[in-house]
Design brief:
The protein has 730 residues and is α/β, with parallel strands linked by helices. Helix content is 37%, strand content 15%. It contains 28 helices and 22 strands. The strands form three sheets. The protein has an eight-stranded mixed sheet with strand order 3-2-1-4-7-6-8-5, with helices on both faces. A hairpin with a 2-residue loop joins strand 18 (584-585) and strand 19 (588-590). Helix 20 (518-528) packs across helix 22 (597-603). The radius of gyration is 30 Å and the shape is globular. The N and C termini lie far apart (66 Å).
């Protein structure tokens, strides 16, 4: 029989799940089975778990619906387990190296105990010293196996489920399972300790619990706070037959948790008085004989709770405090008069029919915000829209689209009043997130290079990023975050930790790759000046943080001469180097200043890029892609990447100018190897782009449609991309 079954619920932690699974499979003690519990076979974490299962037979994924919650996922894992002992691990936590060997050795010393408690480490998500809150709880108990009455204050209530291992036969005999609802760890800890006859402790850290930046979900306000008392009542009823000392310790610890929640009326905008009254009834009904009220302020709180003295309790705890934090979010327009007007506008009601859009810090009417705006005009015509642009970019906005210049009085006015704010980057530091407003972060590419807080380990990039604290303050304004594929979903979760909801809808700007016609392709080529009958190759290198300006990295005229007489190059530098006017010489057409990257992609017969995210968008067209990777090792070391592009490219890879030209001269870029690589790349990174992304966003965000009324993603095999120019000509 397997020694350990490690059960890992994965809801909402797909971005960090691989780290948890790696920490288990890397253990020196290998007699284990690993059970990641995913929401469903098509859930974000399921693909991660399935990949591990293919590589290691010890990984056995299970499925539990999100509606079953954490308790349901753990219970599903328990039913699937075959190990002698069960260990629960949250999907964003890790086992420390050597943990299972320590547990096995300790169990060999103690014999078959029902529960073996162990220490754990709480690690700050960003910076600060880790703590070991379990150490004082486990101190002073007997060294060997012992009965619970010998350590009555070790109740299990104060320890999370993942700070112990449990004998599976004991759980089955006592028919123990995680109780439904929130605060399931409290219920589980109390029930298992009440039922256990033989326990032991391991005074070593086994689990490293990584605190979430957004904090515990249990601390969020809402009606779920009432469920704490359901768990308390369940434990106290089961503990009624305990001997006096154990019953008194359990009662005191359980109500320690209750009092902390009762002292936070902000967690229960409605129902705080009802919570207090029910807690008072439970206190009176289950107080064990001989229980002595604690000393000091805690004892006073116990007495007020027992007496049902709600008003006195609130006065004692200062629960009528005014919500803090507004000072830290004061608007910061430049001019004093504008600042005052913005503050006054923030006091006016939100305009429920006003949406504000911005792209690339005001560069113009482009990208995902523009695509969403265009569809919103059709499906939600009642929504009035204002696009934000920098001074000098007003000409980029269509004549029939309202705009405001960034920094103007009008700019701050619409930002203060709009219910909907849509951006592919971030709004200014001083923009206040108002209650009831909805911020949509559309992103502007699939990440190959490191993003957000993941940049902190790369000095060159971190120095340019500035304050990560301010960055995350902007993330806190997001309500929705768009994703084009599961890779992005998991990356955003890790790089931009926040409480937003991810919408796996695809990128609206990529809709055109499935809706454009042959005529649209011809028009795009003519607008860009591509001669008829020529093969247009788009060359789109990315920005390099270790360079001070734009460096093409390739002699494009020489490439054209070597690649073939019918080849022309469309040069599109990173938008950081937009020089404002198209330039060209001979067979090289500079399209950097062209507003629409989508037009440029439609016009191109093939793409050459190094590490630009344009490759992920262009892959939707199912046209040839060649990676020119002359400095890959330098780039990955200085910028950091999420996967090895050389191992999983979207097409053929060239390392030298000569090799690159040869691929076009002999037609290899069109060959079967290129098509095979592109097919694998598209299946991974074009998951949700199908021409309906903008419609999904509008229906979900602006029209408030439920998920079941949102158009489903069309399977990749059934999508028909816009035709390439060669097909148009034929």
């Amino acid at each position: 029989m397997t020694r350990f079954s490690i059960i890992v619920p994965s809801h909402g932690v797909a971005g960090r799940l691989s780290q948890a699974l790696d920490s288990v499979l890397a253990q020196s003690f290998g007699d284990l089975e690993l059970i990641p519990v995913c929401d469903a076979a098509d859930a974000p974490a399921a693909s991660v778990a399935a990949a591990y299962a293919e590589r290691d037979s010890r990984v056995v994924p299970a499925h539990s619906p999100p509606s079953a919650g954490l308790s349901g996922a753990r219970n599903t894992g328990m039913r699937a387990a075959n190990g002698t002992y069960l260990l629960f691990l949250d999907g964003d936590d890790v086992l420390v190296p050597g943990a299972l060997a320590l547990l096995d050795a300790r169990l060999a010393e103690t014999g078959d105990v029902d529960v073996l408690y162990a220490e754990h480490e709480r690690t700050p998500w960003w910076e600060g010293e880790p703590t070991n809150p379990a150490a004082p709880l486990l101190a002073g108990v007997p060294n060997g196996a012992f009965t619970p009455d010998r350590a009555p204050r070790l109740t299990g209530v104060a320890l999370p489920a993942w700070s112990a291992v449990y004998r599976r036969a004991f759980l089955a005999e006592r028919r123990l399972s995680f109780p439904d609802g929130h605060f399931t760890d409290l219920g589980w800890g109390g029930l298992t300790t009440v039922a256990a006859e033989r326990i032991a402790v391991l005074r070593s850290v086994v689990v490293r619990h990584r605190l979430r930046r957004q904090g515990s979900r249990l601390n969020l306000p809402g009606p779920h706070q009432q469920e704490l008392l359901d768990q308390v009542e369940l434990v106290l009823e089961r503990a009624a037959a305990l001997p006096g000392e154990r019953a008194r310790a359990l009662f005191e610890q359980v109500f320690g948790v209750v009092l902390k929640t009762a002292a936070r009326p902000d967690r229960m905008p409605a129902g705080h008085r009802a919570f207090f009254r029910r807690a008072a009834r439970l206190h009176r009904a289950h107080r064990p004989d001989g229980f002595r009220m604690p000393g000091g302020s805690v004892g006073v709180q116990h007495r007020l709770l027992a007496a049902g003295a709600y008003t006195a309790f609130r006065m004692l705890r200062g629960a009528n405090r005014i919500a803090a934090g507004a000072a830290g979010r004061l608007p910061r327009p430049r001019m004093p008069l504008t600042r005052l007007r913005y503050a006054l506008d923030l006091r006016r009601p939100l305009d429920a029919d006003l949406a504000v859009y911005c792209a690339y810090w005001g560069r113009g009417y482009v990208c995902n915000p523009a695509a969403i705006h265009a569809v919103a005009r059709e499906l939600a015509p009642h929504i009035r829209s204002v696009f934000l642009v920098e001074a000098g970019q007003e000409h980029t906005v269509p004549n029939d689209v309202e705009y405001a210049v960034i920094g103007s009085r009008r700019y701050w006015q619409v930002l203060a009043r709009a219910k909907y704010l849509v951006n592919n980057a971030n709004f200014a530091e001083g923009v206040v997130k108002r209650p009831g407003s909805i911020h949509v972060q559309t992103q502007h590419g699939t990440p190959l290079k490191r993003m957000g807080t993941d940049q902190s380990a790369y000095p060159v990039v971190a120095a340019q990023t500035g304050s990560f604290t301010r960055l995350l303050g902007r993330v806190d304004r997001w309500d929705f975050n768009l994703s084009a594929n599961r890779h992005s979903t998991q990356t955003w979760e890790r790089a931009f930790p926040g409480s937003y909801r991810t919408l796996e809808y695809g990128y609206p700007r990529n809709d055109v790759y499935y809706t454009a016609t042959a005529h649209d392709v011809v028009r795009a080529r003519r607008r860009l000046g591509v001669p008829d009958g020529r093969t247009a190759v788009l060359y789109a290198p990315t920005h390099r943080d270790h360079h001070t300006g734009f460096e093409p990295g390739l002699d494009l005229e020489a490439f054209c001469e070597a690649a073939g007489e019918d080849v022309v190059v469309l040069l599109r530098a990173h938008y950081f180097y937009d020089r404002g006017a198209g330039q060209g010489s001979g067979r090289v057409i500079d399209v950097t200043a062209h507003r629409s990257a989508e037009d440029v992609c439609l016009a191109a017969d093939a793409l050459i890029t190094d590490y630009s995210s344009i490759m992920f968008d262009y892959a939707n067209l199912d046209r040839p892609i060649v990676v020119y990777a002359d400095d890959w090792e330098v780039y990955r070391q200085t910028r950091g990447v999420y996967f090895d592009l050389m191992a999983e490219p979207p097409g053929l890879v060239a390392r030298t100018p000569e090799e690159l030209a040869r691929l076009f001269r002999d037609g290899s870029y069109l060959g079967p190897e290129s098509r095979q690589l592109r097919a694998g790349f598209r299946s991974r990174f074009c998951q949700f782009d199908d021409g309906l992304a903008a419609e999904r966003v509008v229906r979900r965000v602006f029209l408030g449609r439920p998920p079941e009324e949102i158009p489903t993603v069309i399977p990749l095999a059934e999508r028909l991309p816009a035709p390439a120019a060669t097909l148009v000509r034929s």
